[in-house]
Amino acid sequence: MIDEITGNQKIQLFGHNSNGYFTEIYINMLLPNKTRPDFTFGKTFQNS
User: Fold this and answer.
1) Class of residue 1 by CB neighbours under 10 A (exposed 0-12, middle 13-18, buried 19+)
2) How far is CA 7 from CA 10, 20, 45, 48, in A?
3) pTM greater than the 0.90 cutoff
4) pLDDT, tens digit (0-9, with 9 covering 90-100), for 15-46
5) Taking a C-beta distance cutoff of 8 angstroms, is the pair 11, 27 a contact?
6) Exposed (0-12), middle (13-18) or buried (19+): which is 11, by Cβ within 10 Å?
7) d(CA 8, CA 29)
8) Which residues partner with 25 through β-bridges?
9) Which of 15, 14, 6 is nearest to 29 (CA)?
10) What is the pLDDT of residue 18?
11) Which of 23, 32, 44, 45 is deepest in the core (most CB within 10 A)?
């Protein structure tokens, strides 16, 4: 997936948390001046 605004490639993963909601994790891999990917959570992630 390519971010239309920044042109950065994103990996989009989906998983269920214990409440049954989808957790959206966007890993923005190509930000400049970053040594680690930025993680943006669509919802608070909860381990089952």
Assistant:
1) exposed
2) 9, 32, 26, 34
3) no
4) 555 544 444 444 444 555 455 555 555 555 45
5) yes
6) exposed
7) 7
8) 13, 41
9) 6
10) 53
11) 23
Long-range residue pairs from 37-44, CB within 8 A, at least 24 positions apart, any chain: 43/17, 44/17
DSSP assignment string, 1-48: -B-TTT--BEEEEEEE-TTS-EEEEEEE---TT-SS-EEEESS-----
Rg from Cα positions in the chain: 12
Take residue 14 and report the two structure tokens written for it: 């989906």
Q: Is it the case that residue 6 has pLDDT exceeding 60? A: yes
